[in-house]
Amino acid sequence: MIAGRRALVAVGMVACVLVPRGPVDAHEIGTTRVAVSFAPAGRYDIEIVTDAAALAEKLETVAGPPHPMGTTPAAQSDSQLAALDAVFRKRLRLEFDGSPAHPAISYAIVRSADALSPPVATIHLNGEAPPGARHFTWTYAWTFASYALTVRSAGTAVSTQWLEGGQTSPPLPLAVPAAPPDRIRTAWRYLALGFTHIVPYGFDHVLFVLGLFLLSGRLRTVLWQVSAFTVAHSITLGLGMYGLIAVPPSIVEPLIAVSIAYVAIENLFLRELRPWRVALVFAFGLLHGMGFAGALKELGLPPSEFLTALVTFNVGVEAGQLTVIGVAFLLVGWHCSGRDWYRRRVVVPASLMIACTAAYWTVARLAL
Amino acid sequence: MNRLASLSNRTVSVLVVAAIATSGATLSAHDMWVEPTTFAPAAGEIVGVRLRVGQDLLGDPIPRDPALLRQFIVDDSEGRKPVVGRDGLDPAGYVRAATAGLLVVGYHSHPSSVELPAEKFNQYLKEEGLDAIAALRAARGQSGAVGKETFTRCAKSLLLSGPAGASQRDHALGFTLELVAERNPYALAAQQDLPVRLTYEGRPLAGALVVAINQSRPSERQAVRSDKAGRARFRVSDSGMWLIKAVHMIDAPPGSTADWASYWASLTFALHAPAPQRQAS
Questions:
Q1: In angstroms, what CA-CA distances link B140 with A55, B88, B124?
Q2: Distance from CA of B9 to the nearest CA of A (A)
Q3: What is the mean pLDDT of residues B111-119?
Q4: Is the Cβ–Cβ distance between A342 and A214 less than 8 Å?
Q5: What angle do CA B187, B190, B193 make, to 5 degrees?
Q6: Of B157, B170, B159, B155, residue with least CA distance to B46
Q7: Residue of A nearest to B270 (CA)
Q8: A205, A321 in Cβ contact below 8 A?
Q9: CA distances from B103 to A138, B17, B98, B164 (A)
Q10: A71 touches chain B (CB under 8 A)
Q11: Is residue B131 over pLDDT 90?
Q12: Contact A18, A2 (CB under 8 A)
């Protein structure tokens, strides 16, 4: 599952979803990303987000003698990067209609909260495009990996493409006629994103839904639980997207894993639906909705079609869940749920497996 | 006798290659290696396992990509365990040094596809010592053709928790192409070489170019062709991180859209600088 705390997922994975790479892939996708924004007056801002230590190593190697043996430079203060500004400029190029530009560059480093995660450098290039400029090209050769280049111009659609380190982009237009927001396309896109958030990317949600399915073979039982879950996660998804609630993913993620374990364990002791089960599933749905909101925030919502995207994403999530239940019903529920051995051979072992997996996730998510 | 001269009786060539970052040249193929946040974890310490792609041990982090991940495991005295992590994040995984001894961390990818213009592809074959493939392309009249290949990463790293011992050994993890250190690099005696064995599908691979690079002098490479037993020996006395690597290429399997399938093995470890000797007073 993509969740809020997975900040860097948005870089590669989400971009993969929104802008699939062509059939010819190249090198592995790294953690660098570049976002180009053009304001109406012609000012541009290019933001490069990259691993600070990896960049510092390369800059310092180019600038002078290699580092003392085997040490990674502790670098990584804003001023150290700024001191290597002349070196940094050597391997990037911004051109407007074939003429090189000389932007102002500022450097900032953000250290991660935990010692194991690398510091991140955020570099801004600012300047003004020449009057009348129509196209620009971009080259960034400080990465060996593939990276996403995102271009935003005022009043135009966002475009994203993949570049190799050192590769020059094709000429990109500074402004294209603004396409009217296409509600149908937005709806389809977010419907698909919602669906794929469950199948195949949301394995934990899949296990939760299977946990609901396994309680009883009765359709009524499944419908009550799924309805409670749906209403609940729709509430927190909406509230989260409108900024009315915000719970850190470090809390939500382990609790989602706990909720899966709980549902599966309860299946071992419960044979039919009880009111408290519906209430609990509702409460768990509130949690899962916060997780969905985190994922959707990372995907981003078009401001002009915010509600369309929000609703269709939620519908996509529902469709994904119903697909899981439908497939489970066809595979086992249809033929087997009435059999004597259904509980012994299907419900108990499957619930145990789900509970063990979720328990592992709980520990792993608390540990990381 | 200097370090290189001591190896002169073997098939060793020292390639002085300008570092990509210093020359600005664009090489055609990139190495991939495992670079943990520490090679010498304390007992119980959690280590971030970073995957890096780059050249001359200057690399970029690669986040964990479930679509590419075939095996990501750690082998220690307690057995083999998966390297846990979160999709899309760097470090790609985490291991805990539960017990003292050698930890063998391995990452085996699924194949990825790449197409390179003929010139770049030929250059890459030359750089990686894949002379047989270059000759095969020439014999087939394909030297001017686009190089279509799939590439698979088989990267390993050796971490040492606690004191080194000669009995601590690297393990074969069963990767398609694999480098196995036949001595513990952390327990080498002075003037002792490190023998490594290159295997393809579990069998020794002869004639492959095996290259050793030290982080402090990446432009000075020790390059050795593996012998009949798949073995190559390196003098790894310099401290700092070492990368030993080899590339093997075969015809792509029938039905593949690619023409070639390459396998990239790497092995990393890091040696500490010896403590300065005290002068007798």
A1: 42, 41, 18
A2: 27
A3: 90
A4: no
A5: 75
A6: B159
A7: A70
A8: yes
A9: 43, 32, 10, 12
A10: yes
A11: yes
A12: no
